[in-house]
Amino acid sequence: MRKHYDFSQARRGPVLPVSKGKTRITIRLDTDLLDWFRARVNEAGGGNYQTLINQALRRLIDNPTEPLEVVVRRVVRQELGQGGTPRPRRRKTRAA
Length: 96
What we know:
The chain has three helices and no strands. The protein is mostly helical.
């Protein structure tokens, strides 16, 4: 490295404006998720994996496949080990 640099002939590069309707955020995603999106972009011949993530989220919002309540109930049943099958009903016994 030099002690002094001459910036007298330097020119400022272009400043890229932020796209309207876009917000820059920092988000933590699982590595396997990110790898999956990057692989899909590479299979398509290139592009931007962030755009692909945005499209996937937009599709989910615009066309929800199931109501959230249905998804939550299914997950709870799976976690409790019921697997989504109803429990057998008990027969009432008469007192003698």
